[in-house]
């Protein structure tokens, strides 16, 4: 077939190629064999890649069984890949082939379909067999007629099955897929004392169903796009049509549709980097959640949610610094207790950023200490400089955190005891570290772990390290310079054209009051103006 295609391209429309007239059948071209080889090579390379790609996308499905098998062998490795399966059968004197991927196909549904087709007689099949199969004989809910090769292959690689009927240039794509999936369970990073215990999983359909169960709104929209030339990852953009700002929705769609990569096997994180493009800024511009109730609440507020297949996390757009500092537990308690928990959490976040640099500043600048706080500061500086102690402890905490992630659960408690008691106690007794450094570092670490957003906690840690270095280098001016640069950096940052420090900068009194105080539910009647809801 390739030789035939090459011959057809060489003499297409009877026009000469390379200035030479087309040859008549049976005649040979003049010249040496080497010249013939070079000329054939040039003719085959002449069509541009874009034109070949366009022709490949427009190719129809062959009507002969042998050609269909050859197509699958060439495109998806039938015969080489063990999970590419074809089940050939004859129904009513018509040869058929059921093409599916082993491991994705739902065998119970496909078995029922094949069982129903076994009752067909030859006189029951019309000239348009595909249409009659579609309308009369296939007892499946989601069935689609497909005439293009690429569309059929994409559907089967996504888990569907394709029924090929000989002498027909179309297939029936049956959506009977069964992905490997785990049971929804409570997310580890967003646990609550009261509330639902279900969470998102790695299967897209389960995730959107969990949100649809909570939002039975006719205006809830789920728009599906595919990202990645090779992975063809399903990405779902969710929003409430009569609440969300359509300019925001269009901006999210444009950014996602503009991603041109081979694939996003790491799912949402790679999609975030490809769309947000924050560069080296450590602060996250996207909020993640694994709780369906949190996503449903944010959709009602006017957010846009982005689901990515194979990821249990959902991106919420846009977001602010203060939104990522809130937790679902605050809304599960009474307004008074919720406000108290919010203040404690904010205090922990501030401590994780400024406690160590401020204490270090008071140690190196003793004249700043009032007499009532004269006890602050070490009596013995230790064998290692204070700045180096801080840096070593920071690295040690990071190592403990990474070790806890990779340590089996039964051994995690034992590792924590060994690290906290043996290493910490021995380090102080030998004089390498002082007690105050270990104490304040522990408080800062607790504040970091109390931050609801994992990405925000890591960014705050980087800020703490920078402030420590600036205090060691420039003392009071260094601390003031670092705090000023931090506020400026966050103030100029924007998440999908929304200010990152809102409602502090720009100032909004009502929104700032709702941020400080967790108001009763019935008094929360106005949506956040940040999202420009309708």
TrEMBL record:
Bias kind Basic and acidic residues: ranges: 1-18
Spans annotated as Disordered: 1-60
Ranges of biased composition (kind: Basic residues): 39-53
Presence of the UniProt keyword Zinc in the record: no
UniProt keyword Protein biosynthesis present: no
Membrane-spanning intervals of the chain: 343-364, 410-428, 437-454, 466-492
UniProt keyword terms in alphabetical order: Membrane, Transmembrane, Transmembrane helix
Any single biological process term in GO: spore germination
GO cellular component: membrane
Family: Belongs to the GerABKA family.
Name of the protein this chain belongs to: Spore germination protein
């Amino acid at each position: 077939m390739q030789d035939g295609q090459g011959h057809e391209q060489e003499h297409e429309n009877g026009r000469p190629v390379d200035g030479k007239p087309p040859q008549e059948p049976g005649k040979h071209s003049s010249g040496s064999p080497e010249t013939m080889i070079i000329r054939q090579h040039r003719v085959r390379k002449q069509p541009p890649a874009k034109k070949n790609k366009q022709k490949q996308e427009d190719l129809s499905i062959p009507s002969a069984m042998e050609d269909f098998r050859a197509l699958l062998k060439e495109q998806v490795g039938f015969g080489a890949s063990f999970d590419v399966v074809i089940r050939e059968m004859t129904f009513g004197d018509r040869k058929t082939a059921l093409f599916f991927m082993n491991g994705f196909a739902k065998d119970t549904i496909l078995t029922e379909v094949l069982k129903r087709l076994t009752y067909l007689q030859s006189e029951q099949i019309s000239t348009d067999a595909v249409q009659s199969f579609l309308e009369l004989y296939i007892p499946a809910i989601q069935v689609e007629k497909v005439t293009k090769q690429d569309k059929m292959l994409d559907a089967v690689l996504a888990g569907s099955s394709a029924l090929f009927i000989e002498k027909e240039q179309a297939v029936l794509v049956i959506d009977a897929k069964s992905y490997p999936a785990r049971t929804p369970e409570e997310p580890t990073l967003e646990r609550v004392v009261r509330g639902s215990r279900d969470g998102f999983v790695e299967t897209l359909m389960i995730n959107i169903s969990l949100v649809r169960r909570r939002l039975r709104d006719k205006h809830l929209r789920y728009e599906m796009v595919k990202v990645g030339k090779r992975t063809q990852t399903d990405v779902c953009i969710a929003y409430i049509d009569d609440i969300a700002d359509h300019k925001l929705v269009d901006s999210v769609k444009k950014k996602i549709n503009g991603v041109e990569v081979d694939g996003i096997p790491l799912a949402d994180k790679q999609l975030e980097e490809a769309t947000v493009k924050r560069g080296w800024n450590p602060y996250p511009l996207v909020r993640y959640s694994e709780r369906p109730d949190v996503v449903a609440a944010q959709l009602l507020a006017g957010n846009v949610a982005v689901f990515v297949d194979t990821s249990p996390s959902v991106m919420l757009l846009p977001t602010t610094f203060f939104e990522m500092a809130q937790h679902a537990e605050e809304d599960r308690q009474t307004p008074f207790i919720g406000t108290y928990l919010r203040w404690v959490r904010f205090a922990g976040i501030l401590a994780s950023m400024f406690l160590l640099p401020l204490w270090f500043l008071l140690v190196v600048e003793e004249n700043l200490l009032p007499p009532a706080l004269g006890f602050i500061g070490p009596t013995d500086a230790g064998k290692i400089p204070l700045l180096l102690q801080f840096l070593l402890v920071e690295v040690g905490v990071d190592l403990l955190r990474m070790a806890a992630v990779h340590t089996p659960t039964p051994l995690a408690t034992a590792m924590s005891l060994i690290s906290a008691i043996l290493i910490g106690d021995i380090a102080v007794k030998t004089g390498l570290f002082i007690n105050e450094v270990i104490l304040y570092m522990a408080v800062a670490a607790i504040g970091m772990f109390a931050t609801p957003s994992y990405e925000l906690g890591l960014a705050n840690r980087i800020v703490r390290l920078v402030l420590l270095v600036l205090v060691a280098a420039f003392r009071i001016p260094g601390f003031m310079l670092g705090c000023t640069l931090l506020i400026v950096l966050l103030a100029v940052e924007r998440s999908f054209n929304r200010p990152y420090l809102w409602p502090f900068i720009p100032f909004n009194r009502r929104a700032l009051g709702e941020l400080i105080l967790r108001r009763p539910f019935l008094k929360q009647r106005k949506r956040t103006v940040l999202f420009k809801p309708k």
